[in-house]
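LOG
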Amino acid sequence: MTDDNPLHQVVQRAQKGDLAAFDELVRASRTRATAVAWARLGSEERAEEAVQEAFIDAWRLLPTLREPRAFRAWLKSIVRKHADRRTRRARLETVPLDEGRAGLEPGEPDEVATVVRQAVAQLPPHQRNVVEPFYLHGMSTKAIAQSLGCSVAAVKKRLFDARRRLHPHLESWMTDTLPHVVRAFVAARTGDSAHLAQALTAHPELTEATDPPDEARVVEHYLPGHPTATLLLTAVIHGHTGIVDQVLASGADVNGGRPAGAQTPLMLAVLQSRGEMVERLLAAGADVHRVANRGFTALHFAALRADRALMDRLTVAGANVEARSANGWTAADWLAHAEAVPRPRPEGALRIVDPHGNALDGGPPLVTPERQPRAPGPIVETGIKPIDLWAPLANGRVTRVVGGPFVGKTVLLAEVMQRFAPPVLATFLDRSWSVKDFEHVLRECNVHPGARILIASDPSGAATLARSALAHAEARGSIVVADDRLIEELRAARPGVPVLAFSPNAHEVDPVLTADAQWVLSPELAKAGRWPAIDPRASRLAWSRPPEEKALVEAARALWAESGPRADRLHAYLTQPFWVGESYTGLPGVTVPWTATRADVARIVSGAVDDRPVDELRYRASL
C-alpha cells in the first residue's frame, strides 16, 4: 500500500466487489493476520488455516464494515474469532488449504535449493516422483502425468499431500500463494470466472485445494457444513454452472476429492434439485455409485427429494436401483416415504425481492398482496413434539428462537420452514449474505419451490419489510421467518400467521420476553444427543393455553427436571427425527399430531409406560 493508494481507498474498492482490490488487502495484511493467529494457536499449520478462513469470511463480511479506515482492527477481530474457535472446539480433521506452487526461481540461493532437495529426499517415492519434476524442474502436472502413466488428478493429489510434509522448507516461497487461494474460493462462491482463471493460471494445482470447515459459515448459514470443500463443491453449492465447467476443464476431480463417506458434488447438486448441474457432472463422468454416510447414493438423495425426473436420469446413467441405505431402504422405499408424508408440496419459482417487490434475482417485479386485519388466532400444530408441548406456534404470535452454535437452530428453523412451505424469509442484506446465499439456504432446506425472500438493504426499512413479509405469508397461509431486529415491527403489524424471529448470533435468553414466545436451545441437550434440543426450563409463552393443557405441561415440566427412569423416558420420547435431517441421519422424518403427543406425555407422566425400555422411545413417532 502506497501513499498514493492508501489502505482505506483500497477497502472502499473491495467493498464494491473489486476482487483485485481485495487481493491487495490480503497481501498487505497476511503477515500481521498470521502473527495474530499464531499467537493464539501456537501452530503454523492451524494458524494458516484460520487465516485462510478469516480472509474468505472477510470478503463476505466486507460490505458490513462501516468505517474503511478501521479495516486492520476489524480484520484482526475476525482472525481472532477463527483462531479462538479452533481452540474452543475440536475441529473436524481436514486437509489444509493448498499452499500453492513453490517452484524455484532463477537466482535463488543455492543453500535454499539444497534445503528443499534434502526435504524432498525424505518423501515417499510416489510423492518424490512428482515433487522433483514439478518444483525443481518446472514440469507441468500434465507432463508429469504422461511420464508416470497416471491421471492429472492423481499428480495433483500427490503434490497436495507432499506439500504438507514440505511446508516448513517451502515457507520462503509461499508468501505469494494465500491471495490466490482466497481469490479462488471467493470466485467460486461468487461466480467470478475471470478471477478464478487468474488464480488457476498462477496455481493450477488449486483445483485440488480444500476450504477447511468454518464454524462461522456453518452457524450463520444455519446448515450442516461441508468439510474440506473443494473449488468444485463450492461452485456446486452456490449454483454457478459456469464455474463448475471451468473447474472441471482445469482438471478437477469430478467426484470432488472428498473424504470417504462425504457427499460428492453430484449428490449436492441432486439435493439442491439443480438438474442442469447434474447433467454437467454426469457428462464429466461423475460416479453414480459413490456411497455417502448412512449408505446413501445420489439416487437415494433424488428419492428423498421426491424428484422422479432426477431418479430417472440417474438410473439411465447406471445408478443401482437395488442399493440400500443403512436402514435397509432402497431408493424406491425412500421415494414412497417422501411421497406419503403429509407435508406441503408447493410449486413455482423461488423469488428474491426487496420490500417493494423489486426483483433482486433477475426476474420480474413481484406484486405485494393487500393485507386484511386479523386478530391472533388459535394454536398452529407443527407436528414437532417438544414445540407443540412446551411453546407452540400460534397465528398472530411472534416466537423468538435463541441458540448459539451447534445446538441445532439451523435444522430446527429449516424443519419448521419445510412444514409450512412455501415460507417467507425476511431479513437485511447487511447481515453479509448474498442473494445466492439465501437461495442456497432454501435449496438445502428443500423449501425453495414457491418460497419468497424479502431483503431490505438496512434496518431503516424495517417497517416496510415487516408489512410486506406478512402480506405475502398471509396470502399464502404460510409462515414468516424473520431477522430478530424485526420483532417490534412484526408485532405492531398484527400478523395473521405464525412468525419466527432469529439471529445468527443470539445466544442469550430474553429476560423481558419482547416476543410472544421463546424457544431456547440447550448446549447440554445437544451434547447429550437429544434433538431437537429445546430446553423447557427457559422456553416459554407470554400468552395462556387452555387450563387442561397448562396442567399437563406443568406436570411434564416438573418431571423433566427430575432424575430417574421416568424422566429419562420423557427425555427420550421428546426426541424426533426431522425431514430436513434425513440425508444426514439416515432416519425417516416423522410428524406427530398434538393429540398424540398430549396423550403420550400424559401416559409417561402417570407412569403408564414405566415398563417400556427407554431406547424404545428415542427418535420414534408416537407411542
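LOG (cont.) second protein
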Amino acid sequence: VDDAFVSALADQGIETAFPIQALTLPVALSGADVIGQARTGTGKTLAFGLALLQRIDPSGPTPQALVIVPTRELCLQVSNDLTIGAARGLEIVSIYGGVGYDDQLAKLRGGAHIVVGTPGRLLDLKQRGDLDLSNVRELVLDEADEMLDMGFLPDVEQLISACPDDRHTMLFSATMPSEVVRLGRRYMNQPTFMRADQEEHETAPTVAQHFFQVHRMDKPRILARLLQAPERGGCFVFVRTKAMADRLVRDLDELGVTAVAVHGDLRQASREKNLQRFRDGKADVLVATEVAARGLDVDNVSHVVNYDCPDDEKMYLHRIGRTARAGQDGVAVTFAQFNEVERANLIRKALGLADEPIREVFSTSDELTDLFDLPSDTPWDRRGSKSLAPKSDLPVGKVRESDDKRSGTSKTGSSRASSSRAGSSQRAKQSAEDTSDTTSRTRTRSRDRAAPDTSDSAPTTERVRTRERTRTTASDDSTSGTRKASDRDGQSPGRARKRGSTARRQDQGGGGSNRNKGPRTASGNSGRKQQGGRDRQNGGRKDRREVSVDAARGTGQPRHARRVKVEHLP
C-alpha cells in the first residue's frame, strides 16, 4: 500500500488490517478480478478502496473509477472513506438522487477521477450524455446482494456494459446469492473468490443477541425500557414500513426519548440532517427502514433493536451489523409478536441460536430489569401518568343525542344527564303530555316524519334520513313561524307543511305528489295517473328531486322517509 495512504489512515487511527483487507489487497493490487465476502462491519470499503485509489493515474482522463452502491447514505459514506485519495490529488464525486443536478454535473465536468453513485442517477446521467464511462479502468460493485434485492441489477448491467472490457472489476457483498454469483461470472474475468469468515451466517462474537415475544401495543414501552440501559450508546431501531417509522418516533417522544427517522419518503436533505443529528449525539435513537441496514457506519452504536421481526437470517445479519463494528461490543434485541415467533425460530435455527424457547416479556417484567440492569423507575413514571393509551375514534366533545319526537325537543349532553337524574317523575310528566295530543298526531304520524320543533332564537341542524339519500337541513325562523301559525289555526303541523309544499310545487308548474293533492276529482285522478306513469318511466327521479328540494329547505314531507333522527354535531 502506498505510504501516503498509510499515513492518512494512521491519522484516522487505522493501523491494523482486517481479515478481508489482508486477503483482498495483494490480489486486487495485482489487477486480478476479486469477489469478496465478509461480515458487515469488517472493513470491506477499504478492501477495495485502497486498491482502487492506488491503481488510478491522477494525470489520466476522467473518470477512471466507478463505484456502484445501492443507497444514498452508503454512497455518501463510501465517498467519505475514499477522501484519503486526496493525498495523491484524486477528486471524488457522489452521484445520487433526491438532490439537484447542478453540483454533481459541475464536479463531473471539473475532472473527478472517481465516481461513487447509485444505479438510478448514474444511468440517468449516462442516458443524458453527461456521464462518460469509456475511460473507466476500475469498477466496483459494493453490496451487490442488496442491489439484487432492490431490483437494481438490470440498471447495473447497463452501466457495466458501458465500461471498457479490459477494466479491473471487484465485487463485494456480505451474502452471496446465486444471482450475484452469476453476475460475477458473466462480467468478470476469472475472478478470485475471497471469504474472510469460516461460516456463511456467522455474526460478530461480541454481539449479545436476545429474542423476546412481545405484545404489539406494548412494544413502544418495552423499547423505551431497554433504552434505559446504563452506559448505552446510540441505538438503531429497524421497522418494516415508513409509516411505522414516523409513528414510533412520535411514541418515543411521548415517553421522553429523542428519536429521528430515516426512510425513503423523506427528502434527501432531511435524511442527511437526521443522520447527522444521530452521529452528533443530538438524537439517541435512529428509527429506520431497510434503507439504513446496509453499509452505514456510525460510531458508538451499542444497541440494535429489530422492532419488526426480520424476514430471514440474511436481513437479520445486515441489521445487527450496525453494532459491534470494528471489534466493539454490542447488543441486538429482536421483538416477535405471537404470529412472528415461528419466523424468529427459523432465524435462530439458521444461526445456531435456538438453544432455548423465546421468552415472553412485558414492559413491567422484572426479567428486563435483571437482564439489562435497568433502573427501577420507568420512562412513563418520569413523564407522569401520561401513557400511550389508545385514542378514541370519536371526535373530542361529540355527544350522541337521543331523539324525543313526540315532545318535539332534543336533549344536549347536560340536559340528558339532568333528565336521567330526574328519574320516574320526569318520565311520568312526559307520558301525560304525550297522551294529550295522541288523537291529533295519530292520523299524521305515518305520513309526517318531520324533524322536531326548535326554538325561534337558535337554528338547529338536523339530519334527515330518506330511502334515497341523506340530507342535512336547517329549520330556520320561517319554518318555525309556519308551524306556529298552523297550530293557532287548529291544524296539525304536518297538514300545514303539506299544503305549503303543494302550493309551491303548483306555482313551479311541476304538480304535486298523490298524497299532497287536494280533493279528488275525475280530472285530478286522470292527471295523477298520467303523472304517475311519467314518474315510473323516469325511475322515480321526479319524486326524489321534489323530496330533496323540500328537505334542503327544511320544509315539506319526505315521501319515502322511514324515520327522522336528530343529531346535534359539534
